[in-house]
Here is the input.
Amino acid sequence: MGIYALNYFNTGEERIMSLCEVVLVCALFYTSEIFAQKENTTIHQNQKQQTIKLHSQFETLEFTSVTDAKSAVWDHDAQILYWVDALNQTVHALNYTSKQHWHKHIGMGELNVVLPIAGSKRLLLGIQSFVYLFDWDEPCPFCLKYIAALDKGSPGNILNEGKADSKGRFWGGTRGPIYGSSILQDQGALYSLEQPKFEPTVQLKPVSATNGITWSLNNSILYFIDSETKKIDAFDFDIAKGRISKRRTILNLAEYSFMRASRPVAHAVTIDRNGYLWVALMHSGAVIRVNPETKTIVGKYKLPVSRITSLSWAGPHLEELVVTTSRRNMEKEEIEKEPLSGALYILHKLGTGGVPDQKLSFNDADNF
Here is the structure.
């Protein structure tokens, strides 16, 4: 296993890289085997020490037109990885079998969410504070079909995160406007939407910056991250009614000494087949593995870039962890130090794997 830098240049609205091109680029950029370094890390919490010995190989996919990659999601049926470039307002798809890469510029505002739809060729997109159906084959803006608006009356708010539960409902969280480098606090909310009307239901308010949603393996718990709290929280989850209750904290990141040093922001969460959480740490260049039962960090994976934005299990056996990164608002000197910021990292040999990402339920979506 090595590290690959695959470069896709944006030459128009859409770009498809053929399998032959991918083979050629891989041959040109193949380098020696490398490791995500996690040298015997010692983590301190409440004067306790925990030694972590972890090693994993990774490869990188560098798309040179991507500035702010996020919202990685895996369509296990089609073997396609989706993600977005929020700043450049572009949706991306990579076919794991053919190695073809598609992307389409939307141009309707900040694009933070992409989600497959069960039984449909269309996708759900979150743009600004709106939810749309998206059609690859139509020119934009006709590629979008309006579904719903969130945070009505707050035009500066953004739909920042979105996932589907096991019943196919959409759960989306918003954040308030950004002034300078700060998010206006307590301006957002967590919503759920479901067919047939897709009317937004407020599940939690106020929220400052939703940046992580996932569910326990038995669907009895919803795990949630509001980045501004520096906590990973849990709710009891009623799958039949689609309601949450009894909020409590699983992990307070501010209690860890290594967290105070790098001031990271919890930016995404997913779950593995063992029921452990994997959390992306923006500004820290790391992914942590959390045991939600013992409320402890059991692993820390360091990458050579600082701005990690999202993660998703992918691959035919769901044993590859895809991690998206960003170079948004980075200075020239920072990019020179971290030239692969904005790339996608694929971590291998982690000793576990994931479960399939859920899809949105939307009957007859192709004819909507």
User: Anything to note?
Assistant: The longest helix spans residues 19-29. The helical segments are 19-29, 257-262, 332-337. The two ends are 44 Å apart (CA to CA).
